[in-house]
Amino acid sequence: MRRARRHSPAEAVLSKGALSTLPGAGKIGLPPLVMMFFFLSACSPRSLSSQAPERPASADEWYLIHIRGKPAGYSSQRKIVGENGDIETISFTRMVMKRGLEKTIVEMRLELRENAAGKILGFRKEEKTAREGVTTVGKVIEPDRLDLEITSGSSLPRKRTTSFDPAARGFQHISGKINSTLKREGDRVELVVFMPDLSRCVKQISTVSALEGELRRIENRLEIAPGNSLVSTDWVNEEGKAVRSRMPYLGLETVLSNRAEILGTDFSSPPEIFISSAIPLGRFLGWKREEILYELRLRDRKQPMEIRESGAAGQKLTATGEKGTWRLKVNTVRNPAAHDLPLVPNPLPKRYLSSTTYLQSDDARLIELTKKVVGKEKNSLKVAQALEKWVYNYVSKKNLGTAFATAKEVLETRQGDCTEHAVLLAAMCRAAGIPSRVVAGLVYYRRNFVGHMWTEAYTGKWIPLDATIGKGKVEADHIALSVSALDNTAVSELFIGLIPFLGNMEIEVLETR
User: Fold this and answer.
1) From CA 171, how far away is CA 110, in angstroms rounded?
2) Cα separation of 439 and 310, whole Å?
3) Among residues 445, 478, 482, 499, which is most buried (max CB within 10 A)?
């Protein structure tokens, strides 16, 4: 008898992220790079006005963005100096790409304020990755503390305080430092930069690798996590402007341009990055998916990156002793614990139950629907599985057109891909009193592994659930790379550590059972 074709989560979801260049000469933050990962995990369509770039000011800088040689968007940047010497840098990035056959657009606007000495005063970030945008406003309140206020659509602002490195300096100061310090081949500078798109400070190392005519070739390394860095190359002219920048992730490149050229650029056939970014397995995985042993390898082992333990349920990563190679054993979680609700005392940090910008578990309608699904059931596992099945059926329009919607928006639109399924399930679990988190990684799909997101619920121990499938369990064909409580931090944090692996990973299946 022929086995029925199993519904793949990748058909409903996958492709989120955004690209951005490092803050070297001529650019602020990571917008194109961060924005790119929103495209790499699957979403639902939205229509955005294709309005022309705003009218330029005299000092505006414009950059054309390419992915694999095709136009994929643009960015602009403006510097405003106040009467007191404070400097405001404003940047806007708009990217358009295809995920499969669906075209998706994401936008990001950043404002960074610094004083004449480069000290950070505050910032504002506006992200448009779905129908409703998310705005983050930050202010340095003490030398080592940063206040954040995050607002999604018409929802009330959510506030948090996070650590801040007093050594961090603003974009204009960093650009000036790089231009004045890096003159000759071998010149090197280490800086602490503030990334408004990530809402945190990171270390950047920039080195002149060569002098090419009137241009300086500068290699940048941004240390985003222990053992992992984002790298870029800038070609900088005598004025300190990066006339060209390149990153090794999906062939991302930005070129110094102007408004007229960007207006004349045809963006109607943008690059496809979902299917083309799949990691080929080269064979059918097979139906035995209770336990799988993988070998994960980096193609370019010279890149400053490591695969790190994700902490996801049922997954164990070990080093092989060979540089750039790891073994990952993934088990389907068996006999999951099933404590009764309410989980008292809750053994986990509050962030796994809190209502957040993307997981609005305090939304009245979401709470009402959650109560209807739960009914009188007290078994936490049965409740989580019932919510998973409900989300699977409720999200009726499964597509790749949205970059990253909040749970509240998914509840209203009933459409999306894996990320939309994951955030809605996580929010409803929290509304039911079940701690939850989301997982970003890969899933097997038609002889390939593609970007994916799913949910984990705590019922006495963490159990994975995938609302794009609705089976009540997750098999070993899911490879986790990152987990997050989505606790009002930049959603980019979930994806940024995965970017160095784009186009740079090989997967081999060693054992299945």
Assistant:
1) 11
2) 9
3) 499
Confidence band of 46 (pLDDT split at 50, 70, 90)? very low
Question: How does strand 252-257 pair with strand 279-280?
Answer: unpaired
User: Which neighbouring-strand residues pair with 93?
Assistant: 75, 108
Measured CA to CA in angstroms, residue 368 lies from 3, 34, 390 at distances of 39, 35, 14
Kind of pairing, strands 448-458 and 242-246?
Answer: unpaired
Q: How confident is the model at residue 3 (pLDDT cuts 50, 70, 90)?
A: very low
Adjacent-strand bridge partners of 89: 79, 112
How many Cα atoms are found within 13 Å in the side-chain-facing hemisphere of 241?
12
pLDDT digits (tens, 9 = 90+) for 184-210: 999 999 999 998 878 889 999 999 999
Residue 54 CB: number of other CB atoms within 10 A? 11
Q: In the numeric block, which tokens belong to residue 389? A: 């099945």
Find out whether 149 and 173 touch, Cβ atoms under 8 Å: no
What does the mean pLDDT of the chain come to? Answer: 85
Please tell me whether residue 482 adopts helix, strand or coil conformation: strand
Q: 287 burial class (0-12, 13-18, 19+ CB within 10 angstroms)?
A: exposed
Which residues share a beta bridge with 327? 295, 318
Segments making up each domain of the chain, as ranges:
9-263
Residue type, 61: E
Q: Could you tell me the pLDDT band of residue 227, with boundaries at 50, 70 and 90?
A: confident
Chain center to CA of 283: 29
- Residue 105 identity (one-letter amino acid): I
Instruction: Measure the CA–CA gap between 97 and 95, rounded to whole angstroms.
Output: 7
DSSP 8-state class, residue 46: -
Rounded Cα distance, 436 and 370, in Å: 14
Structure tokens at 207: 């080195």
Q: Residues of 259-284 as b/e, b for ≥16 C-beta within 10 angstroms?
A: beebeeeebeebbbbbbebbbebeee
Phi then psi dihedrals of residue 7, to 5 deg: -70, 125
| pLDDT confidence band for 401 (50 / 70 / 90) | low
What is the tens place of the pLDDT at every residue in 282-323?
899 999 999 999 999 998 877 777 888 999 999 999 999 898
pLDDT of residue 9: 40
pLDDT of residue 15: 36
The C-alpha atoms of residue 396 and residue 415 are separated, in whole angstroms, by 6
Is the CB of residue 211 less than 8 Å from the CB of residue 185?
A: yes
Distance CA 366, CA 382 (A): 19
Distances in Å between the alpha carbon of 241 and those of 24, 182, 315, 382?
9, 13, 45, 58
Lowest pLDDT segment from 31-40, 324-333, 470-479: 31-40
